[in-house]
Specification:
Layout (H helix, E strand, L loop, with lengths): L1 H8 L5 E4 L2 E3 L1 H8 L2 E5 L4 E3 L13 H9 L1 H10 L2 E3 H7 L4 E3 L1 H16 L3 H15 L3 H14 L3 H12 L21
Parallel strand pairs: 1-3, 2-4, 3-6
Antiparallel strand pairs: 4-5
Helix pairs in contact: 3-4
C-alpha cells in the first residue's frame, strides 16, 4: 500500500493504460493512478478478492467507492466478477474506454500535453484535488490490516487452496471468472 500512497501523493501525474486483465494488485495500482484509460477490445477489470476469500487490501475499496459510488463498488467487490471497459467507463471506474487501435495515441497525446505544462500548477492542482478526493488514511490502513488478517482465516486458506487445485493462475484460470461461479467444490 505504501507504493500506492506514494503514487497518489507524487507530483508526477500517473496515467494507467489498461489493455488486458487488471485485477487484484494490478487493480490497486490502476486505482492509485490519477487517470485510467482502457482498451474497449481487450480490457477486463475486476476485484476477485472476496471470491478468493479475502478483501482488497491496498486501499482500492475506498478509492473505488469514491469513483463509482457505494452500490457499484459493492457490486464490483462483493460480486468478484470481471467488467468490460464500457461498463467500467459507465461506472466511473475509468476515465474513458477506446478502441484498442486508438488507446496508445489518446494516452500519449494527453501525457505529452500534460508534460508540456509547468510543474508547479500541475502539482498544485493535483494536491488540491487530492485534498477532497482521497479516502482518510485510517480507512486505507484498516483495509490493509483486514486483508492481512483475512489471509489467516481458515476458510480463506481453504478457498485459496481449492482455487489453486482448480488451476488458479494457470490456463483457464478460475480466478478470471470468480463472479460467474467456478466449477470447483469448496
Amino acid at each position: 500500500m505504501g507504493t500506492m500512497l506514494r503514487l497518489i501523493r507524487s507530483a508526477v501525474v500517473g496515467i494507467a493504460k489498461i489493455r488486458g486483465r487488471v485485477r487484484g494488485v494490478g487493480s490497486e495500482f490502476a486505482l492509485a493512478c490519477d487517470m485510467r484509460f482502457a482498451s474497449r477490445d481487450n480490457a477486463v477489470l475486476g476485484r476477485p478478492e472476496v471470491g478468493a476469500g479475502v478483501i482488497p487490501g491496498g486501499g482500492g475499496t475506498g478509492r473505488l467507492a469514491l469513483l463509482t459510488g457505494r452500490g457499484r463498488a459493492l457490486e464490483i467487490i462483493l460480486g468478484s466478477d470481471g467488467f468490460d471497459a464500457d461498463t467500467a467507463e459507465r461506472y466511473g471506474w475509468i476515465n474513458r474506454c477506446l478502441p484498442d487501435a486508438e488507446l496508445d495515441g489518446c494516452v500519449d497525446t494527453l501525457a505529452r500535453s500534460i508534460a508540456s505544462f509547468d510543474r508547479r500548477p500541475l502539482e498544485s492542482a493535483k494536491t488540491l484535488v487530492n485534498q477532497v478526493w482521497l479516502p482518510p488514511l485510517d480507512s486505507l490502513f484498516n483495509g490493509r490490516n483486514t486483508f492481512a488478517a483475512a489471509l489467516a482465516w481458515p476458510e480463506t486458506r481453504e478457498r485459496i487452496a481449492a482455487l489453486f487445485r482448480c488451476g488458479l493462475q494457470q490456463e483457464g484460470d478460475p480466478g478470471a471468472r470468480l463472479g460467474g461461479g467456478v466449477s470447483c467444490s469448496w
